[in-house]
């Protein structure tokens, strides 16, 4: 066992003990230095700097790693487009262009649909259930297996919580109202909405406002009140729908090149892993903290909150299940993860229905009214 | 800026670079050693070893700190009673008997009721809202101010999620059914239940089973399915009530003697803070992961799940508000924290009602049925 020094407030006696320890440690210094090299790595992200939750989380992650290593492990964060485009993060880490990336894995469902499990599937796990699946439910191992062919080590590193369903120029009362709707969204959501007659549109964030204003599109989803407020969509599409069934939570992830990660000293590996875990809570906390006030401001400036009818939710749920069955039939990798995830989703829903949901429902009944 | 070394897979070239770095670093070694002393600290907890979530979280926290410091900062975890009794953790850290403690601050409401805010108040914040309040909503600063007179630095370091309301020998349909009920519970909950005619009983965990079996008490609350299962209460009090309005979440906290913490090198301070944050997610994830299966087993062995009626919840909510008004009237410190917390609770309920709750409700409707 190493010699024990107990830190106490700065006293002469204590300073002397520390000083002795310093002298003694000179012998061991090469080993210490070897285990604590100066590193400067680059992290590319899929977010603009204006998103203080997503971009802010990446910078917080870098700061924590720096703090944990006395500044020896320095990670420089680059917003979308500064080194690689927003949706080239996976490629950049896989190819070794950079050591690290921070992104939402569902951006890459074009490579394979299973990547969505690392972010969310429509009608999927809420943020707590996703965290439970990743920390204790076998999700992390399945995701690591999925990312192995990309030579990427992957960590949960943030979550938005349940997103809003989006901004609509007209009210959506029935499934019929969805037919022919030009809706800005992407990935698996687009495939599900297509089954309901919606025409999905891929449009960059900055182009949503003019497209809605001109009527080129009829609806658009982004994130939730805090992030949406910056786009000003309530002025051109005032019906703001909930719940965001497509993203009951959305996890964002840290990617590290596998061989880069393997080459790190153990304490640096731990710093990366624990900083990701800490930022996971930090980011969800920031969304949950910032959304209520943003929602109040949006409503004050004209947004009209609407809840999807059960009919609309049920049609979307059924279309989701149909898509998952189709993907499972043709993609064994998807089927393997889906079967585990689906059983998990069912058991978590059962437990949340018995207790957590009863508590939240009563609190909403007593306190959750605007005023 | 420090010299940059990029780690790559082990190659001769890379090994040579690292070796050069090691040689160069010898000059700086006394500083390195001074900033990274060998420490062995003791953490006392309020939990028996059998609780693999609470006790397990403490051991995980110690492991993370060790991993982050290459084993230099070694924390030994002592279960309840091994060094000090379960409910003497605050005193032990305040008095400097040990450097660290892990406990639930509401155990100490006898010292002052405000300490409950660091765990939960009945009809309070759910786990995500508590995290949001602590990370971004001003809660952490208020808690630090509260703990300053105890010379304790306090960190959120775990959460149970919503607890169950407890085990009852008979069904509780109306408020009248609560009158005269001998109910094992404590703290502020006991004071609220007293207003409803309940007779609160303080009984150690190990004594609950025989007390229910003999009819010395009529009901008892503990935590939730995973922890409750070990007590076997379904055999002697089969009605298992939800929601646990008294603990919509329950945060547990890491205490560090303030002067001990102040004496730590910066990277060790960060290790303690980030390990606490990581364990916060780890523990809640473990509860959320383990509770569904435990609930199924409890039901299979005789537990009957019951939901409190709205009448009962409303009576308990009103009695809670009455207690908070009384405490605010006579305790300015309580009033200051309550006013901030109460406004936060209201805004969070509003936002969760609009979105998160709608999503969870639909998922429970579609998936959350036993079968």
UniProtKB/TrEMBL annotation, chains A, B:
The record's GO CC annotations read:
tripartite ATP-independent periplasmic transporter complex
Tell me the residue numbers annotated for binding substrate: 163, 184, 221, 247
**What would be an example GO MF term here?**
metal ion binding
Q: Which Pfam families match?
A: DctP
Keyword terms, alphabetized: Metal-binding, Signal
Indicate whether Chloroplast appears among the record's keywords. no
What InterPro entries is this protein classified in? DctP_fam (IPR018389), SBP_TakP-like (IPR026289), TakP/all3028 (IPR041722), TRAP_DctP_sf (IPR038404)
Q: Does the keyword Signal apply?
A: yes
Q: Which PANTHER family did the record assign? A: EXTRACYTOPLASMIC SOLUTE RECEPTOR PROTEIN, PTHR33376
Extract the NCBIfam families matched here: TRAP_S1 (NF037995)
Q: What is this protein called?
A: ABC transporter substrate-binding protein
């Amino acid at each position: 066992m190493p010699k024990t020094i107990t830190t106490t407030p700065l006293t002469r006696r204590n300073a002397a003990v520390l000083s002795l320890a310093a002298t003694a440690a000179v012998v061991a210094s090469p080993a210490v230095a070897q285990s604590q090299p100066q590193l400067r790595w680059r992290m590319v992200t899929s977010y603009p700097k204006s998103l203080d939750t997503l971009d802010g989380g990446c910078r917080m992650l870098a700061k924590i790693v720096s703090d944990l290593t006395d500044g020896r492990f320095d990670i420089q964060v680059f917003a979308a487009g500064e080194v690689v485009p927003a949706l080239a993060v996976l490629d950049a880490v896989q190819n070794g262009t950079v050591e690290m990336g921070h992104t939402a894995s569902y951006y890459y469902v074009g490579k394979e649909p299973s990547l969505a499990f690392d972010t969310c599937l429509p009608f999927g796990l809420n943020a707590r259930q996703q965290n439970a699946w990743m920390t204790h439910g076998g999700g992390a191992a399945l995701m690591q297996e999925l990312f192995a062919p990309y030579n990427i080590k992957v960590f949960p590193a943030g979550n938005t919580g349940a997103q809003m369903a989006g901004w609509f120029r007209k009210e959506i009362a029935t499934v019929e109202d969805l037919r022919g709707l030009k809706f800005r969204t992407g990935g698996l959501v687009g495939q599900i909405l297509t089954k309901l007659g919606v025409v999905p549109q891929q449009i960059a964030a900055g182009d949503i406002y003019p497209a809605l204003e001109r009527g080129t599109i009829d609806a658009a989803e982004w994130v939730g009140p805090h992030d949406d407020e910056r786009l000003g969509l309530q002025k051109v599409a005032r019906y703001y729908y909930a719940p965001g069934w497509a993203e009951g939570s959305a996890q964002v992830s840290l990617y590290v090149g596998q061989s880069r990660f393997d080459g790190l000293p153990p304490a640096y590996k731990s710093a990366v892993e624990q900083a990701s875990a800490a930022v996971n809570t930090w980011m969800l906390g920031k969304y949950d903290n910032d959304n209520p006030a943003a929602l109040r401001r949006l409503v004050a400036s004209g947004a009209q909150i609407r809840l999807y009818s059960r009919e609309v939710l049920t049609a979307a749920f059924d279309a989701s299940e149909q898509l998952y069955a189709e993907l499972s039939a043709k993609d064994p990798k998807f089927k393997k993860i889906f079967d585990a995830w689906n059983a998990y989703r069912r058991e978590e829903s059962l437990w949340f229905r018995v207790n957590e949901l009863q508590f939240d429902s009563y609190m909403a009944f007593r306190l959750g009214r605007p005023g």
